[in-house]
Design goal:
Length: about 260
C-alpha cells in the first residue's frame, strides 16, 4: 500500500513537471526577478569600492556626464546569435588608475603605461582615512594625519563622499583633493606609494596638473581616482585593484575592492 502511494506521488510529480514544462515552453514567459546589484559581499567583509559606469557618470569638466558609452556590434534582437557591445569612453572614466604616461610625454614615449603598473602595489594592505572636511589636502593636513612610516597604500576619504559628487552627473570643480604641497609632502615624508581618493582626480582642481607632476615624477606612485568609499569604517583593509591591461594607455578603468 505504502509502495503504491509512493509510486502514485512519483507519477504525479512527473506529470506536474511535464505539464509545467509545457506551459513554460508555450505560454508567456514568467518575469525574471530583478538582477541583484550589491556593494557589500561575504557577510560584510568585502566592499566593492568601484563606481558603476553609467550614462550619468560625471566626467572631467562636463555638465552632461558620460552619455552613451555602449553601442551594439551585434544583437540578438537584430538576428545575431549573440549580443556584443562596444565601449567608447575616456580611460579616466569612473574608478580608474593614472600611469606616469598621463602627465609626462617622455614616460608615454618610453612605455610607462597602465600595463607597466606594479600589480603588487595595487594589491595589499591599505589604510582608509578621513581627512578634515574644511580644507584641501595640503602639507599641513598630511602632517596632521600622522600616517605611520611603512604604510604604503592610503585611501583618502573627503567631503566628496559626503557630497555624493561621484553620483552627480555635473562635474564639480570644488571637490576636495591634494594641493601641490600636500603631494610633495607625501612623496618626501611618507612611504605611501598608492594614493586613492573619492573623486575624479586625486589633485584639487586649482592645482591639478602640478599635483599630478609631483606624484608621478618618480614613477613610483600609483594614483587611484574615483573611488566609492561610502559606508566603510576608517581603518586597515586589504585592497585589490586590477586595472585593465590597455597597452599604450595613460590610464585605465579598474575594479577595486576592500577586504576586512
Ligand atoms: C538593429 O539594426 C538597426 C538597423 O540597422 C539599427 O538601427 C539598430 O540600432 C540595431 N539595433 C541593435 C540593438 O543592434
Ligand atoms: C596626530 O598626532 C598629534 C600629536 O600626537 C595629535 O594631537 C593629533 O590628534 C593626531 N591626529 C590624528 C588625526 O590622529
Ligand atoms: C579645494 O579646492 C577647490 C579648488 O580646487 C576649491 O573650489 C574648494 O573650495 C577647496 N575646498 C576647500 C574645502 O577649501
Amino acid at each position: 500500500m505504502m509502495r503504491g502511494l509512493h509510486l502514485l506521488s512519483l507519477l504525479l510529480c512527473i506529470w506536474v513537471s511535464l505539464a509545467t514544462g509545457r506551459r513554460l515552453a508555450t505560454g508567456p514567459e514568467a518575469p525574471l526577478p530583478p538582477a541583484e546589484r550589491r556593494e557589500v559581499y561575504a557577510d560584510g567583509r568585502l566592499f566593492d569600492i568601484t563606481h558603476r559606469v553609467t550614462k550619468d557618470t560625471p566626467t572631467w569638466d562636463s555638465k552632461v556626464g558620460l552619455g552613451q558609452f555602449l553601442s551594439p556590434l551585434a544583437s540578438i534582437k537584430n538576428g545575431s546569435v549573440v549580443n556584443a557591445a562596444e565601449v567608447k569612453m575616456s580611460v579616466h572614466t569612473a574608478t580608474h588608475v593614472d600611469s606616469p604616461a598621463h602627465v609626462f610625454d617622455k614616460y608615454a614615449d618610453a612605455g610607462y603605461d597602465v600595463d607597466s603598473l606594479d600589480l603588487e602595489l595595487l594589491n595589499g594592505p591599505a589604510l582608509l582615512v578621513d581627512v578634515p572636511r574644511d580644507k584641501n589636502i595640503t602639507a599641513d593636513v598630511m602632517m596632521s594625519l600622522n600616517i605611520s612610516k611603512g604604510v604604503r597604500r592610503v585611501l583618502f576619504r573627503t567631503s566628496n563622499t559626503d557630497r555624493q559628487l561621484m553620483f552627480k552627473k555635473e562635474f564639480d570643480s570644488s571637490y576636495t583633493g591634494f594641493m601641490k604641497d600636500g603631494a610633495k609632502w607625501l612623496v618626501e615624508n611618507t612611504d605611501i606609494k598608492l594614493v586613492g581618493l573619492d573623486y575624479l582626480s586625486v589633485a584639487a582642481y586649482a592645482e591639478a596638473l602640478d599635483t599630478h607632476l609631483e606624484f608621478l615624477a618618480s614613477r613610483e606612485t600609483i594614483l587611484v581616482e574615483g573611488l566609492k568609499l561610502d559606508n566603510i569604517l576608517p581603518g586597515l583593509y586589504t585592497l585589490h585593484c586590477l586595472p585593465v591591461r590597455l597597452v599604450g594607455a595613460d590610464g585605465s578603468p579598474t575594479r577595486c575592492i576592500l577586504l576586512k
